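Run log, item B.
One chain of 195 residues. Sequence copied directly from the ordering sheet:
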Amino acid sequence: MTRIKNKQMQRWLAVGLLVALILLIGLAVLWPTVGKWMELNEEKLSLARQLKQYERILAGKDAVVESMNSVKKEILEQGYFNSQQTVSLASAELQEFVKKAIIDAGGQLSSTQALPVINKEKFSLITVSVRMTGNIEVLRGVLHRLETSTPLVVINELDIRPMRNIRNRRTRQIEASNELNVNFQAVSFMRKQPE
């Protein structure tokens, strides 16, 4: 009887080991497969979320395009760009505007010189080099007038230097001068003309 029990116990033990071995092999094969399936499922869900987000963005495309066209129209209506037909006319207009601003502020224009036009993408930069003299109030008035003008004028490379003091011929004393020598570039923008 003990022998029968031992044989039966051995059979159950062998069957248990066989089942455990099959389970271990099954887990060794299935575990990576299940892990890969879960990873791919997560990636699929993430891509589905991204797709929905892109669809929402794409749905708003027409509104964005309409808004961009509206902004372009407003910019054109505000007159920020020089409306002359040629670069030469735009440069001459800018020189005349700068001259008038300096004279109106009480300064003296020493010289203006048109610099070569710089083309950037859809715009041409019209640049005029300016030399003038005047006191700080004159300079403030000129800069204010230029910076608040339409079409838009931007000041570049502003160089301010005090004028030399003058010796009085009678008293031989040096008299201070409030006058300034000012050099700057005035830049105006123009839509690039088709070639």
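Observations after the first pass:
- The first strand starts at residue 108 and ends at 114.
- The two ends are 111 Å apart (CA to CA).
Flagged for discussion on Thursday.
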